[in-house]
Amino acid sequence: MSTTKYIFVTGGVSSSLGKGIIAASLAKLLQARGYRVTIQKLDPYINVDPGTLNPYEHGECYVTDDGAETDLDLGHYERFLNVPTSQANNVTTGRIYQSVIEKERRGEFLGKTVQVVPHITNEIKERIQILGNSGDYDIVITEIGGTVGDIESLPYIESVRQLKWELGEQNSLVVHLTLIPYLSAAGELKTKPTQHSVKTLMESGIQADILVCRTEHELSDDLKKKLALFCNVGKDAVIQSIDASTIYDVPNMMLDEGLDRVTLKKLGLSDEGTPKLVRWNEFLTRHKNPKGTVHVGLIGKYVELQDSYKSILEAFIHAGAENEVKVKVRSIHSEHIDENNIAETLEGLDGILVAPGFGERGIEGKIDAVRHAREHNLPFFGICLGMQMAVIEYSRNVLGLKDANSVEMNPDTAHPVIDLMEEQKHITNMGGTMRLGAWKCDLVKDTIVSEIYGEETILERHRHRYEYNNEYKEQLESAGMKTTGINPDTGLVEIVEIPTHPWFVGVQYHPEYKSTVANPHPLFVGFVKAAYEHSKKQDNLAHI
C-alpha cells in the first residue's frame, strides 16, 4: 500500500482558469495542517522545457535551484509553500518522449514495438511518482496542463487513470477545475459546460472526485445540488471559486469552502483542527492595508504580457507588504524610450527596475533609463540584463567609452564590457545550456547588499550566457562603480553598486525567483524601502 497520497488537478471548459493557484492554495492548506506537500506540473507541449519559448508565447521561464528551466506555475508553488522545487517538479511531453526514445536507442525495450501505451504512460507514471517515492512528502499534487479533451493531454489523462487504479482506494483523487459561465442575457449561471467537461473526463475513464467551479457570481445551494447530481460527486465536493481581488486570498476562500476537509476525508487522512495560516494572514493584512504608495517603473521588452515578468511583479507584492506600502508598477516598453521622451516617460516614478531579457531589441531604451536613474538619484535596480545595461551605460557616459556594449548586441564592439562567458563560446545547442541554477556569491562588507542580506555569502539563481568583463573591472571601480558581489569559484562579478548614489544596485542573478510570501526577497524589500524614502522626500519638497 502506498504511503504517499496523490492529488491530480485537471482543467475543463476553458484554459487560464487558474489550476496552478488552486493547486498551490490546496497545498498551502494541507501544509498548514502539518502535512509535507509538494506540487508538480505536467506540461503537454513538445518542447523539452520552456527555456527556448518566447515570453509572449508562454510567459516567464522560471528557474529552480538545481538549474531546471520550468513553467511559471512552479513560481506560484514556491511563493505559496516557501519550499524549493526541482527538476522533478516539472515534466513536459518533450522530456517524456526524449527519455523513451533514448531508452529505445539503448535497447532497453528488448525489441518490442514502442507505443504510447504502455511505454509513454509508464514513463509519465514513473515521473509522477519520483517525488512520492523520495520519502520526503506525505502528499504530491500533480497539475496537468491544458484542458480535458485536448489531444496532447490524452497520454497524461490515461496515465492518471492507470495510476488511480494501481494506487488503490483512498490513495489518490482528482480535483477538476471548471468554469460556470454567467449569461447576462438570461441572467443566470449555466452548468452545462461543466457537465460536458466532467463527461469528457469520464469518457477517458476518470471520475472527478472534487469539482472546483470558477465563477463570477455566488453559486446557490440548488446549483451545487444540481452539479453534484449531474457530475456524480457529493454536494460537499462542489467547491465555489469566485473571482478574488488577489491570488493570495484564494487559500482562505478554499478554506471557507472546505476544500482541504473534503480532500483529507477522501484520502482517509485526519481533518481535525484547522490550518494555521497566521503568518499568511499577517501578510494579507499588510498587503491590503498599506500606509503609503510607491510608483516603480518596470522597464522591459515584453511588458504587453504581464506573465512575462510574473515573479518580479509578485516579488513587489511581497516587498510592498513587508514595507507596509502599495507598490504601483508602471510597465514601460524599452523600445518606446529615447533621449527626447525619457523625462516625460519616467516622470513621477520613485524607482526604476530594468528587467531581464535577451537580444538587442529595446536595448538603447534600457540604457537611457539607467542613465536617467543614475543622474537623477532615482533608486535603481537592475536584474541580469538590467545589470549589464548599467555597466554599459556607466562605461559609455562616465568612462567615456562611447562604443561600449555587450557582444550579444554588437559582436564587433571595441569595448566589450559585457562578454560571452568562456564556457559558452563553443556551445551550439540553445536549450538548457545557459548558466543555470543556484550559485554562490561572496559579498563585500559595508555595502548596500551586505547590509540588506546580513550575510557574507549568498546563494542565488542564474539564467544567462553573458557576463561582466573583468578586463574593465579596474577602470569601472576607479570611476565609482564598485563590484560588491563575486562568485568565489569563477571570479564572475555578480553585483555592482554606485556608493555615491542613494540606491543603485545591479545583480547578474534573478532574485525574484526566490521571493515568497513567508520570505520576501531582501533586495526587493530594500529597493521598495529606498523608493518609499524617495517618495517621501519628493512630497516634502513639494510642500516647501
Summarize the structure.
This protein is α/β, with parallel strands linked by helices. Helix 1 (19-32) packs parallel to helix 3 and helix 11 (278-288) crosses helix 12 (310-323). 49% of the residues are buried.
Could you give the topology of this structure?
Blueprint: E1 5-11, H1 19-32, E2 37-43, H2 55-58, E3 62-63, E4 69-70, H3 73-81, E5 90-92, H4 93-105, H5 116-133, E6 139-144, H6 154-167, E7 172-179, E8 182-183, E9 188-189, H7 192-203, E10 210-215, H8 221-231, E11 238-242, H9 250-257, H10 259-266, H11 278-288, E12 293-300, H12 310-323, E13 326-333, H13 342-345, E14 351-354, H14 363-375, E15 380-383, H15 385-397, E16 404-406, E17 415-420, E18 435-443, H16 448-453, E19 457-464, E20 466-468, H17 473-478, E21 482-486, E22 493-497, E23 504-507, H18 522-542
Parallel strand pairs: 1-6, 1-7, 2-5, 2-6, 7-10, 10-11, 12-13, 12-14, 14-15, 15-23, 16-17
Antiparallel strand pairs: 3-4, 8-9, 17-20, 18-19, 18-21, 21-22, 22-23
Helix pairs in contact: 1-3, 1-9, 4-5, 5-6, 11-12, 12-18, 14-15
Provide a descriptive summary of the structure in words.
The chain is of the alpha/beta class and about 550 residues long. Strands 13-12-14-15-23-22-21-18-19 form a nine-stranded mixed sheet, with helices on both faces. The protein has a seven-stranded parallel sheet with strand order 5-2-6-1-7-10-11, with helices on both faces. β8 (about 180-185) and β9 form a beta hairpin. The longest helix has 21 residues, at about 520-540. The protein is globular and about 75 Å long.
